[in-house]
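In the current project phase, the collection of sequences with tokenised folds has grown. A representative record is quoted in full directly below:
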Amino acid sequence: TCIGCRKTDDQAVLMRLAAVGAEGRIAVRVDERRRMSGRGAWVHRGTACFAAALRRHAFNRAFRGSVDTADAEAWFKALEDAPTGSGLETVQPESGSEI
């Protein structure tokens, strides 16, 4: 279940976020490989659900306490700022199909 929009979806569509103890605080980090130990929460990969989870203070509830979301916010900000394809890329033919 996405903690942003509260919709149930396949794990392949959701991104796992994990609570990690760092420097005397509990930080929320993106668990891209889904292998980090500890309590986790799930959110859709788009930034809209992450923003909704921040607005609703869903991370504090999911991780049962006050957490620092700065690392996860930076990750999702980078995802939002990443360039998308222009749609003009040329598909190269497979080997042997040039004829």
